[in-house]
Amino acid sequence: MHEGLLKSWNAGATRQAIIAFVARVTLEDGPDYVPPAARIAVFDNDGCLWCEKPMPIQADFLLRRIAEQAEADPALRDRQPWKAVHEKDQAWLGDVITRHYEGDDSTLKEMAAGLLSAYAEDEVEDFAGKAEQFLRSAQNPVLKRPYLKTAYAPMRELLHYLEANQFTNYIVSGGGRDFMRPITQELYGVPPERVVGSSVALQYREEEGIGTLVHTSKLEVFDDGPNKVVRIWSRIGARPIFAAGNSNGDIQMLQFATQGKRASLALLVTHDDDQRDIAYTSGAQKSVAMAAEHGWPLVSVREDWSRVFVD
Fold it and tell me: pTM of whole model > 0.85?
């Protein structure tokens, strides 16, 4: 069963719920046995596998490019998001995702238009290299930790625990697919082909017989809310039996995983520890209510984790 892999999880109801679920679906003679091929687990990334405050890591990556553009072209400074970045308007920037989770996408559309232009025309390999370099060099401005060390140790252990019990893990995130892929194998043990996320439209070009794939400034899909379920089916072709998230944008994914015919489990990570983590409730109120309604275990950073971040 490999329970020893969950070494950063405190003894309690949440840890026991995970262990009991895995025992049910792996007991070959049991009524809830699930064959290994159908043991599919899906995880959100921002706020679930790594810290998303004071802003999502990819937002920092993209906004730095927006700042460079605003510095080079003063005409951009009258438009959002270049205006907010140039003026260091943290209130406007921080409010975008919160308002999205509350059902208001007015500022998100403005933000998206700018962010989509940030790396337009980059070849896919060049973009991956820039993303990886950023992730290996930048740090969380509040926690003062390198971004790759703001991954949550207990959640990485959970990924390894499920894999040891013949689950196949997928990352299904609102974050950019091509931004995460360079480091998911190393950080989580999840290979690039099992990363499902938001993506820009790509374009194939050929010059002098050499083909390249480049980013455009058009959004292909924003992998959040109901879109997560659509993307799970289109990419995986199966209903998960385990799902973990942390926000209102994960509700449909958690529902989809737990409404099938097989035994299932959904977890919701709640950030209630302002000493070791960054505590917040914004953007998660609906999902917490849904968890109470459906009996999804709440993962308390304060109560359930003996340590928070990876070393």
Answer: yes
